[in-house]
TrEMBL record, chains A, B:
It comes from the Bacteria. This is DUF917 domain-containing protein. Pfam families: S-Me-THD_C (PF20906), S-Me-THD_N (PF06032). Gene3D superfamilies: CV3147-like, CV3147-like domain. The lineage of its organism: Bacteria, Pseudomonadati, Pseudomonadota, Gammaproteobacteria, Chromatiales. InterPro entries: S-Me-THD-like_C, S-Me-THD_C_sf, S-Me-THD_N, S-Me-THD_N_sf. Residues 7-162 form the S-Me-THD N-terminal domain. Residues 167-358 form the S-Me-THD-like C-terminal domain.
Length: 376, 376
């Protein structure tokens, strides 16, 4: 299967939704991918089951604060260099590029890398969403080493990191990425086709495309939020979903610190009730609380979209007064196991709340209305 | 030529002197080297001119704040790993180990590395002293790339850094070293035998040995400072030397910050005059000022020794009330060229004073007496 350049708009929109506020602005990624495709051609998208068990894969991604990614994008040579350094260190050539996260800009970077390196792209990733840290990925949770891990920058400086644990690699790469300008190219999680099949979240590139298309179709029909929710309910991973809140941004605290975009956003209800939702983020949204009660919590997805167009709004684009719907979505089941929650659950982000699947959390009486009910 | 384990005491003492306050406590290095020699045998010390032009060399050193190096030494496996990673990245085996600096602990690390890896050790280095940063080395000044640069730690994590400039590598490695505990093993400046002959400071391992022996002989004869000065005057690089000051430590400010030991030490004259010397350091001593006038300045060597035993005193061992002689020594000529001063001169350390060779600086009327004159 091949994507078209036109598909990239839908993939990008779907990926921005799955980015849950983080993952970097997909617009930047789409420009990078489009440019690469125009120069090198569109890569083949292969289903995970069609990858040979002994194929050598690696991931390619951007890492850094999304607030910086939008200003300091990949130059292309840094992407090639990351793959070349990985091949050099492994002592064998890479057979296909595997997305590490489907959320945001990192849905596009692998397309760019696959196009530039003339390699197929695997229709899968390690999250089915976005997460801020390197170890927060199904590959790591289920035993694939994140190292050797290659970091490159637009000055074509490179690092190869080889550590005992993914968390150690994360700590090292984070300080290096800050020193390299808060935005770098990363190649990691080199693995066999067999390990990919065992540990990846399958089919997520196609899922991002279909989510993006659902929003586009909904706009055409004047009902994008409804179309989005209805489509999500048909997907394998994201079927438990609901509009958590409809409100406008009344408080926003967002800092680029420790190499992350960290802060919270407060929304006040549009229905003139005194209901308030506060969403906390570290690049991605971590927990959504309505008047103090948890309505959705990581690793489940908390997505903010424009209340009219359903356009996903990344953290760095949040503005005072914006009208937003907050949508909660179930995470892929591989992220909800006890071993996964140890790595990507609330405690991994320093939160005290236990993980409760969104389908088991109480709904606000007002926001629990079907999307149709809150549609104007 | 082979050193003996007994020689290590003299090499260590000479290297501590050439470390100009930095370079890490040679005692730690000597313990590491002794242990390695007892287990693996003493490596061959080869003269630079006896190394084949097409031999593949690399340096091995510890990097970090000397205040931390004394507490967190190499474990041995980290040293082997650094050499193995370098070989892997270069795609060829290393033929000999080259010291990067002769000052302090890094006179010993290469002995340890050569013993463990069963490789010869080259009698040369890139400084003829110690400096705090990776780019401050004759290899870099005269065109040898410091990268690929391997960093390892005692948990056997590794980084391979490949950058356009040595300063960029320094910035990256410094933040990584802090993250890895402020003390790491470094392998860098891989080069051919021909490049080593062209760029290295030759014979410095032997020179450290002879300086250490001169101090030991002087102690035997009751006159170690005199013996040290007289010996230095016979050496090829260190012949311009003088006792700058004799005093006791009356003020000491020493912080471990940005991965360095940074601060200054003030000495008051023992002769009941109001003369005061202030010595500023960044790991190594940078400038010695007597009542505000420069008496010696980097890259010339500023060495503090115990006023009775001539034992070199590293920055981390400085104590209030200590009686010290400050000795100024000419740097090897390759460090005094305009291209070298751009990298290791006063401005490279943020100082405003111009470099003036010690032999052209005025002497204090009191301290200018010959060493014999200030000997008790």
């Amino acid at each position: 299967m091949k994507l078209s350049i036109e598909d990239l708009v839908d993939v990008g929109r779907g990926a921005a939704f799955l980015g849950t506020g983080g993952g970097g602005d997909p617009y930047v990624g789409r420009m990078l991918a489009t440019h690469a495709i125009q120069e090198f051609g569109m890569p083949e998208l292969v289903a995970p089951e069609d990858v040979a068990d002994d194929a050598q894969l690696c991931t390619v991604a951007m890492l850094g604060a999304p607030t910086v990614l939008t200003e300091k994008a990949a130059c292309g040579d840094d992407v090639d260099l990351a793959v070349r350094r990985m091949e050099k260190y492994l002592g064998r050539s890479i057979d296909a590029i595997l997305p590490v996260e489907i959320g945001g800009v990192n849905s596009m970077l692998p397309i760019m890398a696959a196009a530039r390196c003339d390699l197929p792209l695997v229709d899968a990733d390690g999250m089915g969403r976005a997460f801020p840290e390197i170890q927060m990925v199904s590959f790591n949770i289920y035993g694939v080493s994140c190292t050797p891990l290659v970091v490159t920058d637009d000055h074509l400086n490179s690092l190869v990191v080889d550590t005992g644990t993914a968390k150690r690699a994360e700590d090292l790469v984070r300080v290096a990425s800050i020193e390299m300008g808060c935005s770098v190219i990363l190649s990691s999680y080199s693995m066999s086709g067999a390990d990919m099949k065992r540990t990846a979240v399958h089919g997520t590139m196609s899922l991002a495309l279909e989510i993006g298309r659902a929003i586009a179709r909904g706009r055409h029909n004047g009902n994008p939020i409804d179309a989005l929710i209805r489509h999500l309910r048909t997907t394998p991973y994201y079927s438990e979903c609901r509009v958590l809140f409809t409100g406008k941004v009344t408080d926003l605290r967002r800092e680029t610190t420790r190499g992350f975009a960290i802060g919270h956003c407060r929304l006040s209800a549009l229905d003139s009730s005194d209901r308030v939702m506060e969403v906390t983020f570290q690049n991605e949204h971590l927990v959504a609380r309505e008047n103090g009660e948890v309505r959705a919590i990581v690793p489940d997805l908390i997505c903010m979209v424009d209340s009219e167009t359903a356009e996903p709004i990344p953290v760095e684009a949040l503005k005072y007064g914006q009208r937003i719907r907050v949508i909660g979505v179930s995470a892929p089941p591989v992220l909800r196991t006890p071993e996964a929650l140890a790595v990507v659950g609330p405690q991994a982000f320093g939160l005290e709340d236990a993980f409760v699947p969104i389908e088991n959390l109480p709904e606000s009486s007002t926001s629990s209305a079907s999307p149709r009910g809150t549609q104007k």
